[in-house]
Amino acid sequence: MTKQHPAWSPYDNNGGTCVAIAGADYCVTAADTRMSTGYSILSRDYSKIIKLADKCVMASSGFQADVKALQKLLAARHLIYQHQHNKQMSCPAMGQLLSNTLYYKRFFPYYSFNVLGGLDNEGKGCVYTYDAVGSYERVGYSSQGSGSTLIMPFLDNQLKSPSPLLLPAQDAVTPLSEAEAVDLVKTCFASATERDIYTASFFLFPPSLPLCDGIFVGGDKLEIVVLNKDGIHREYMELRKD
Amino acid sequence: MFRNQYDTDVTTWSPAGRLFQVEYAMEAVKQGSAAIGLRSKTHVVLGCVNKANSELSSHQKKIFKVDDHIGVAIAGLTADGRVLSRYMRSECINYSYTYESPLPVGRLVVQLADKAQVCTQRSWKRPYGVGLLVAGLDEKGAHLYYNCPSGNYFEYQAFAIGSRSQAAKTYLERRFENFSESTREDLIKDALMAIRETLQGETLKSSICTVAVVGAGEPFHILDQETVQKLIDSFDIAGTEEGPAAAPDSAAEGGSAAEGGAASEQGAPADEGVAPMDI
């Protein structure tokens, strides 16, 4: 007997890619702004990054309806936390909360592939990477989404520290400066968009040139959020529509 | 109100048509330390007197942030107040989650009042022993409500509850007509002066009072001790200096009503010694 397939699925994949890189005292989180379904584009200007707390930012790809529901839930939980503790949630605390929230729906999961970026209690950059049901790990860098298969090996090549078995223990965070990390992220998306149709297209600018005006009006963008001791800074890179 | 045979539980009416347990609950509010609230068109200020059990302990928290646009000051059984604040916060969060917009204050106070009413009609419950001054902003402007253990609620321009609140009420009654047009600073000054009225001659310092503000473009927040002390110092310094200082502020708001406010502020410090303090 042939396998039965459901006539309707509660899920859809809206594509997109997210990346986060942790530095000594900063964290860069980035995502493209394309939202798609099948081979169609739903939006060129949809943000997948949300600020959950002063020191914590989340980027999620996958099914955006589930992502939105997850974001709202975490925001509400953060409010409750603030009322009870009189302070903002730290990134590690939010990391655990996200994991628990995802596992709570273990048997009807949020179709959401998340990457949490921020500063830990000591002010060092931290990145947490998740699967759809809440399995998570603190890492120095990560990517999720349709372009992650293209980006992750590249980041491994550029950022991976030597074996964790070495002594003295090596920090997972990259020794790169903030500006270098932002450039690295732009390079990641440059590669991913060449071959992944779900990740927004890209026209590479030399890092020294300011954001181009005039030539590209509208179109997909790359959203980059940098979190450091001075706060949160959001930057957009204009991309070509294609 | 004396002990009688109709006051044993809340579900017993007296022959005169009174529910004594509810009235006793309202007495509990009068025993708590004072809390005051006043509003203008754009801002609401809450203030309270901090009462500590002993010199060794910290004082009770009487002002709670409920949401960015709503705050509450309580008087009476603070434990009941804490629980009700948690309920209000929860309601605001749930409403925001569903409707992606802030819960209108009027809706919240009705929900609170209904919750209080339930406790006046169940034999296994007791009324909440706390009065709440709910300050909030919504599309219609600034609001100040008073929620009573009886389940009643009223909207006020200014109000005071708790012990020695009559002194504050008298002060507020004299000037409430000007509050609508007050600037934020004048409103806070009036709040501090109202608090001072309840202190019966004790010096007003930031360590024994708490002030919170909510306004258009200004989320609800409790002013820190330093800021409050600076404000106290600035009004304590001199009554005459008040006049010119207040006028430029008021000029921005415009109108003779504000000038009338400034003039009466000049007069008030002089009156301080004369006006009897209500006990």
Automatic annotation (TrEMBL), chain A:
Keywords: Proteasome. This is Proteasome subunit beta type-1. The lineage of its organism: Eukaryota, Viridiplantae, Streptophyta, Embryophyta, Tracheophyta.
From TrEMBL, chain B:
Gene3D superfamilies: Glutamine Phosphoribosylpyrophosphate, subunit 1, domain 1. Residues 241-270 have a biased composition (Low complexity). Residues 240-279 are annotated as: Disordered. The keyword Cytoplasm applies. One of its GO terms (cellular component) is nucleus. SMART domains: Proteasome_A_N (SM00948). It is found in: Cytoplasm; Nucleus. Its main location: cytoplasm. Transmembrane segments: none annotated. GO terms for biological process: ubiquitin-dependent protein catabolic process. Residues 6-28 form the Proteasome alpha-type subunits domain. The keyword Thylakoid does not apply. It holds the Pfam family Proteasome. Keywords: Cytoplasm, Nucleus, Proteasome. Coiled coil: none annotated. Belongs to the peptidase T1A family. The proteasome is a multicatalytic proteinase complex which is characterized by its ability to cleave peptides with Arg, Phe, Tyr, Leu, and Glu adjacent to the leaving group at neutral or slightly basic pH. Component of the 20S core complex of the 26S proteasome. The 26S proteasome is composed of a core protease (CP), known as the 20S proteasome, capped at one or both ends by the 19S regulatory particle (RP/PA700). The 20S proteasome core is composed of 28 subunits that are arranged in four stacked rings, resulting in a barrel-shaped structure. The two end rings are each formed by seven alpha subunits, and the two central rings are each formed by seven beta subunits. The catalytic chamber with the active sites is on the inside of the barrel. The 20S proteasome core is composed of 28 subunits that are arranged in four stacked rings, resulting in a barrel-shaped structure. The two end rings are each formed by seven alpha subunits, and the two central rings are each formed by seven beta subunits. This is Proteasome subunit alpha type. It comes from Citrus x changshan-huyou. The lineage of its organism: Eukaryota, Viridiplantae, Streptophyta, Embryophyta, Tracheophyta.
